[in-house]
Amino acid sequence: MAGRHSPRFDVVVETGIGIPARDGRLLDGPRPVLLCRTPYGMARWRHEARQLAEHGYAVALQDWRQTQGAYDHDQWRPRFEATDGYDSIEWLAARPWCDGRVGMWGHSAMGQAVQAVMPLHPPALASVFIIDAGLDYGAYPTRQNGGFGQAFQLRHTMLMAEALARDPVAKRTLRDAYLHPERYLAVFSRPQAPIVRGRSVLALSPEFEGRYLRTALTANLDDPFWKDGGEAEADRLTRWKDIPVCMVTGWYANHMTANITKFRYLAAHRDSPVELIIGHWDHHMDGSWAGAVEFGAEADIDIFSTIRLEWFDRTLRAEASAADAGAIRYFRMGGGTGRRDANGRLVHGGAWRSAGSWPPRGSVPVPYHFHADGSLRREPPAEAEASRTYSFDPRDPVPTVGGNFCDYTRPDYPSRVGWMADGAAQDQRANPAKPFCRDALPLATREDVLVFQTPPLAEAIEVSGELLARLWVSSNAPDTDFTVKLVDVHPSTPDFPEGFAMNLQDAVVRMRHRNGRILPEPIVPGQICEVELAVHSTSNLFLPGHRIRVDISSSNFPRIDVNSNNGGPLGLPGPVRIAENTLHFDATRPSHVLLPVMVGD
């Protein structure tokens, strides 16, 4: 990766510029122009805009009209987002200080704003740089195979409700609820308790309360709520303008799988350059660490300055300042010392790799089977019958420890909260400082977590590609959940005498949605079902002495809402049932995970 650039131009800042939209509304607003549109207030990105302007670009920051409170909660994507973006691009292109070319960049929701205009083909839009924006938001992270991403949505709902509240008393109350939700929401003492309209602090913001409940209760992803004009985001991808696209994500980021999906389609159907960068990051997309794990100095590339600037120089100015390393640049995790660094993080290490497609060449899906002795082995089980049963009590769920979401407790995070679960890469043990953690023991000690692991590895194994779990399961309940988690178990060291069980990826399936995400299909109590469950992608080097581990359970709370196991309507009050859940692993039902093992160059 190239080094940082030095400023070459002075900067003139103009604010309060009105841009006429096609419906008569005013929108805020000879070199290329770079545009970023945000729902979070443009002041937070002025330092980035100045950096880009110092290198010779005219830069425009613009608030979404929804930032002023004009939200439309009848659909997931804000109304006017696509046409407002189009009109802004064309207005900027017509300014005398623009050379007729406009680039757009955006992170998360701002990246969503970039994607919204792509199907409309604004003539002046010439290049885009999209940082961890999703695709099918109803599928992930809002919902995964029927399970609702409760913590993610609850945090965002409270944050936006407080930010846009006009009544000062409501604003103060919502702020306190955002920082201390255990004082206001029953779900923090009773995990199975749903949020009911008009009966929680969210009622102070009826619009956002309604949006949260619509999101929580709309499991059918064919519902008009998830579509704009009757069309899903994945359908609009097929009409994206054929211009250079660079997408950035991370193994612990919110939208990693969505970005791989977008890359695959665009690389196959567009002539313009399409690049994908996958780092070790969570949704923050910066630093050399993620969660409680340090990945080394090589991991810390500057996405928000150097890489973004190089991209626009290369695609808007033809000033290539870095060699094209390939269509995909990805960070293969692993290879570090396993010791503790000065900040208390485990040193896991890693190195950058390149590939022309995903999974990379040489990646072969290899089955690792579950066995009755708790081992994880390549050979399938031979027993005629073998299974393990555990009790899943919704009142005592397995707490979330790590995963594809931010470490919101970071002191430098703008909307820091301490109640969110520890995100990204974490040692798989409970943290009693967090809600829902009853102790500080490893999750593997819980009776409702089934653990399968290899012996200590004799040689290194690299896993790079998509993960898949194929399970044979049954339950005595009419509905329940099953979860899968892949773990790299570091051996004992003086710094970590009990070892360090580092999560790589996980997934959940709500059994009523095991056969698809549209209409529910209840299970028959006692009947064995085969379930195929995608577990995202990863790239990790398991060193000799490490173990490959897979954990099976039925909850991951508060990241995923708790299934009450009663088979009734999701997200509504109802009785709680303790489910007796069974994983089968015998000769005719050989439950296993498919790991993408690298077997060649």
Can you describe what's shown?
17% of the residues lie in helices and 28% in strands. By secondary structure, it is of the alpha/beta class. The strands form six sheets. The protein has an eight-stranded mixed β-sheet, with helices on both faces. Strands 16, 17, 18, 20, 23, 25 and 26 form a seven-stranded antiparallel β-sheet that branches. Strands 19-24-21-22 form a four-stranded antiparallel β-sheet, with no helix packed on it. Strand 11 (289-290) and strand 12 form a beta hairpin. 49% of the residues are buried.
Helix content class: 10-25%
Number of helices: 9
Could you say which structural class the secondary elements and strand pairing correspond to? alpha/beta
What is the averaged pLDDT score? 90
What's the alpha carbon Rg, rounded to whole Å? 24 Å
CATH class of the largest domain: Mainly Beta
Q: Can you tell me the CATH topology of the largest domain?
A: Jelly Rolls
Number of strands: 26
Strand percentage lies at: 25-35%
Low-confidence stretches at least 5 residues in length (pLDDT < 50)? 25-29, 320-325
Descriptive labels:
single chain; 601 residues; alpha/beta; Rossmann fold; Jelly Rolls; 3 domains; eight-stranded mixed sheet; seven-stranded antiparallel sheet; 26 strands; 17% helix; 28% strand
